[in-house]
């Protein structure tokens, strides 16, 4: 240590002065640093703003590009959230984060074209059929208001199912979030169709036994709500759960086996197949179950990978079978309605359910 330093350390007045000077110096340094930081901050904010604007312009450009020109792409370059069926090798839409582009793609040829149109046309068909049916003269019904509501539930279920379905297939390629929301609607729609199909069938089949009719209706509603609830889980939409999905909806439909057996036991096989329209019910079940099996096993594309990319792949066949099944059910229900009209509203002479 030098003598001068020793001397400075011994003089308290000089020490205070030094400390004061150091404090002033540090304060000045801090103020300069703060000024520098503020300048840096404002320049950072400016850069961020510029980047944000650039991103916006980029997004605008991308949207315009998607709306104009895009090409179908092979399965292996799809992002994970768009990879659903690896037997469809080519013809997929790329991710298109624009609703306008998604809706325009309805008129282009790709893996979803058939899925969209089968249910879009099916939806329009049931909408027209429903309107025509609702405007039938009241004199063709025993209890027009009640019966129109009951049959209207079937039309509502069918229209909801088919419209959620074509909407889902249209916007499926928008983004991961949009595809997730619409897939949940799509699955819920299947539950609505099944529940709506039960209503008129139970109403006419158990016309003179309101108690079992009501119990079966409550049970199918509880099962339907359970199916809708499980459809809201994110894992439910993943490709690994394809079989589980088919199983849940086939199980919901097959819950109709118990009221069918009840009906056949009380009415006898002959009356059940003639008056009860059981033949149409079996055909409907066969169409739905065949559709669900093709969907779960991915037949025929499993045997011809790359050959059914655009037409006749399992999902399209499943869609066609759903529309056919719903129409067969409508035919059976309208026959039941006619039988009820011919028999009149009385129950005593019917002797059965
Ligand atoms: Zn579908």
- In percent terms, what proportion of residues is strand? under 5%
Structural class: mainly alpha
> Any guess at the CATH architecture of the largest domain?
Up-down Bundle
CATH topology of the largest domain: Rhopdopsin 7-helix transmembrane proteins
Mean pLDDT: 87
User: Could you tell me the radius of gyration in angstroms?
Assistant: 34 Å
Shape label: elongated
How many β-strand runs? 0
Task: Summarize the structure in words.
This protein folds into two domains: 11-68; 99-343, Up-down Bundle (Rhopdopsin 7-helix transmembrane proteins). It has helices at 3-10, 12-68, 99-104, 113-134, 144-171, 176-205, 210-231, 242-254, 257-267, 269-274, 278-297, 314-343. By secondary structure, it is an all-alpha fold. The chain is 72% helix and 0% strand. The longest helix is centred in the first third of the chain and has 57 residues, at 12-68. The protein is elongated, with a radius of gyration of 34 Å. It has twelve helices and no strands. It binds zinc ion (ZN). One of its GO terms (biological process) is adiponectin-activated signaling pathway. Its main location: membrane. Zn(2+) binds at residues 169, 315, 319. It is found in: Membrane.
